[in-house]
């Protein structure tokens, strides 16, 4: 599912829904500090990483969280495992990128990395 499309539950996608294998590692896209790691309605088990300069990445729908709020993470470090906790019906990672709390299409940011 791409940015702006319709999620399986009917909501507009503010990120990407990426099919995955249950239990596969979910890795941080860049270094930062975990701002939130817990259950969040509509997202299931979620890890939110603050990358500084107003950038945050969200990793949701997870089976397990590998980091706690306050933990520092390196780029490509595992932060969770893929699951279906966000009620999507199948194992997948929901990935969202935000700048100053507004959703941003991850394609543009990832091209710069």
**Biggest sheet features:** 9 strands, antiparallel
Structural class: mainly beta
The number of helical runs is 1
Radius of gyration: 13 Å
Shape: globular
User: Per DSSP, what share of the residues sits in E-state strands of 2 or more residues?
Assistant: over 45%
Helix content: under 10%
Straight-line distance between termini: 22 Å
Residue-averaged pLDDT: 87
Q: What pattern of helices and strands is seen along the backbone?
A: EEEEEEEEEH
Low-confidence stretches: none
Number of strands: 9
Features:
mainly beta, 9-stranded antiparallel beta sheet, 9 strands
SSE diagram, text form:
Blueprint: E1 15-19, E2 25-27, E3 32-40, E4 44-52, E5 55-65, E6 72-73, E7 78-82, E8 92-99, E9 102-104, H1 106-111
Antiparallel strand pairs: 1-8, 2-7, 3-4, 3-6, 4-5, 5-7, 5-8, 8-9
Descriptive overview:
It is a single chain. The protein contains 1 helix and 9 strands; from the N terminus they run βββββββββα. The chain is mostly beta strands. Strands 1, 2, 3, 4, 5, 6, 7, 8 and 9 form a 9-stranded antiparallel β-sheet that branches. A hairpin with a 3-residue loop joins strand 3 and strand 4. The longest helix has 6 residues, at 106-111. The mean pLDDT is 87.
């Amino acid at each position: 599912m791409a940015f702006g499309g319709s999620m399986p539950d009917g909501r507009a996608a503010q990120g990407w829904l990426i099919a995955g294998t249950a239990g596969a590692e979910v890795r941080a896209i860049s270094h930062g500090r975990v701002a939130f790691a817990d259950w969040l309605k509509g997202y299931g088990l979620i890890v939110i990483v603050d990358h500084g300069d107003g950038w945050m990445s969200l990793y949701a729908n997870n089976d397990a969280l590998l980091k706690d709020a306050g933990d520092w993470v390196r780029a490509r470090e595992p932060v969770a495992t893929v699951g279906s906790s966000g009620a999507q019906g199948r194992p997948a990672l929901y990935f969202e990128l935000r700048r100053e709390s507004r959703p941003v299409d991850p394609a543009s940011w990832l091209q710069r990395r």
